[in-house]
């Protein structure tokens, strides 16, 4: 670009960095990021979010450390992380069983005036459910209800599946009824979890009724 008289901008660099990141080419994206910095072109929230996403997707501990470093560097440059940036970290930490760390990220984003969205809350809920910490998962759900993020069927499915796995089908059924009361519609995942849960505890007639309702 510069050879033809055009100077690269933050947008052009970020676009290419994002493409490299999506293709898993972290080394190339990092090299381009360093070139961008050496030219005195300041990265923006999009640049950092792409690099953080790529680091998290690598599933390597060293890259997760890099993701945390990038977030810290981003804040140090007075670039406000977006809800998307924070949610990337929350989701990755939860999938790796690091729910306490994920909760810490959520607390940090709230402190910085970034409101968690439905994806953030769903990721944290799922993290607790994977650890079978259903009381904590329900607390996250209740917090979401009181926030601007309205739970969707996927939110309910996370909890229903969590309760099914610990054989608390009564709790799962309460959530099922709550879905109807909110004028939402259960999906195949909802029914599958409930039917499996009912069969697991020997409530075959109830399972059959749900099957016919589908």
TrEMBL record:
Q: Quick check: keyword Lipid metabolism in the entry?
A: no
PPR repeat copies, ranges: 9-43, 44-81, 82-116, 117-151, 152-186, 187-214
Q: Which Gene3D superfamilies match?
A: Tetratricopeptide repeat domain (1.25.40.10)
Q: Which domain of life is it from?
A: Eukaryota
Which InterPro entries did the record assign?
A: PPR_rpt (IPR002885), TPR-like_helical_dom_sf (IPR011990)
**Keywords linked to the UniProt accession:** Repeat
Q: Identify one Pfam family in the record.
A: PPR_3
The answer to keyword Ligase applying to this record is: no
NCBIfam families, per the entry: PPR (TIGR00756)
Task: Report what the protein is called.
Answer: Pentatricopeptide repeat-containing protein
